[in-house]
């Protein structure tokens, strides 16, 4: 029986105005869930509900909120296999990857359950006697969180867990094509004992979401916006929030470079490029965009990389495969445009386009899904769209360099700044690359993909506005610093004016 799911506001099912069928991209004839989509009014109403619930939730002691986060982690852990299987069914992510994604929620909860006892402020010495200075972290209020579907449960947890831990209420708008996974995750969070209205989930399309968010910002019911998605939409979110003097948390796209130095372990570099370029079918914000390989080892690297891609297993994500299908037909339509950027001066290694019976990929294990060949394009140049723009899907470009400074310049040229990687055995190369690259994340002898729950995650330039998720750094997204001074002298002491002055003899010489 097809799942029927709708938005949940204040603990109650919300009305729907249209429906959307979330299908299995590995077998597009299978409907995973029939999703009732809400309108802008429902989104705005959810923000009002969250505002009312947030007041009491903020009064709950932070260590108690931490115990709720601990319960969420244990609930997710106990349901890990079921949630991962649903992720695989709905977005086509290989099951092993889906299990890792679910584990990321548990890791995030494990980190933040203790932060309820560590929302530290500071006691600061005053410049005047009989006066004390303090700082405190306060919750921002209501966070509106809008997430993509390529990581339908892990990435949302990077927002939801710290936001709730800090005493905020949340209105979460997941991607429609990953609605069943999101609804399952909402149910796990709700089972932890969260008060009704503290976490709300609203399913809506982009237009209705934007209109609802605009209304909520005008009404003052949203104090923080978190958005994971494309750079194009991120700009619009940033402009909207800027009109209300708010700074959103933006985690956007990437054109992530991998530099391969002459001293690199080529087999390791090929393994990293294969996973970074084609894991999740190249549909990660941290997916490899361009391999920038030294000209002296270009031929050797390309030969090994092409062979690895040819041997990689593509197919049913329930099995042991490198990659499954694309997330949804709309991404396939967009990917067709990307492969249209391949030009005459490029050398294509392997096949391009949709995998079919007449155009198979090795021992293809899928049937009836949105499967595309993993594609490597050699000879890309800094003028090519394939080099300059994000290509969300299984396509990786290759270019060459002569000096490390040239490689760093090429790595920064597209203007994104999310993730990057360098393969080298020389620590001088690694640190020089770290200093020069604009990316918010740098890997040495590792792929561009992969994040740990206690490190800051986020990008610069076209990849974001410098905000960071994960670890203690995300606390600055969901709290506001408050300064307090307490004068117990019994008289008015004016800062910078009534300060004792000890006069030195600056003319003294030995």
Which structural traits does this protein have?
single chain; 510 residues; alpha/beta; Aldehyde Dehydrogenase, Chain A, domain 1; Aldehyde Dehydrogenase, Chain A, domain 2; 2 domains; 7-stranded mixed β-sheet; 5-stranded parallel β-sheet; 22 strands; globular
Describe the 3D structure.
36% of the residues lie in helices and 21% in strands. Helix 2 runs antiparallel to helix 4. The chain has 15 helices and 22 strands. The mean pLDDT is 96. It has helices spanning 40-59, 62-78, 80-91, 95-112, 154-165, 179-190, 206-219, 231-243, 266-278, 298-311, 329-339, 385-388, 404-412, 427-436, 475-478; strands at residues 3-5, 8-9, 12-13, 18-24, 27-37, 123-125, 131-139, 142-146, 169-173, 199-201, 224-228, 249-251, 256-260, 288-294, 347-349, 375-378, 395-401, 416-417, 419-423, 441-444, 460-461, 479-487. With 510 residues, the protein is an alpha/beta fold. The longest helix has 20 residues, at 40-59. The strands form 6 sheets. A 7-stranded mixed β-sheet has the order 15-16-17-14-13-19-20, sandwiched between helices. A 5-stranded parallel β-sheet has the order 10-9-8-11-12, sandwiched between helices. Strand 16 (375-378), helix 12 (385-388) and strand 17 form a beta-alpha-beta unit. The radius of gyration is 25 Å and the shape is globular. It starts with a strand and ends in a 23-residue tail after the last strand. It folds into 2 domains: 3-119 and 126-252 and 464-484, Aldehyde Dehydrogenase, Chain A, domain 1 (3-Layer(aba) Sandwich), CATH 3.40.605; 256-454, 3-Layer(aba) Sandwich (Aldehyde Dehydrogenase, Chain A, domain 2), CATH 3.40.309. The active site is at residue 251. InterPro entries: Ald_DH/histidinol_DH, Ald_DH_C, Ald_DH_CS_GLU, Ald_DH_N, Aldehyde_DH_dom, ALDH7A1-like. GO terms for molecular function: aldehyde dehydrogenase (NAD+) activity.
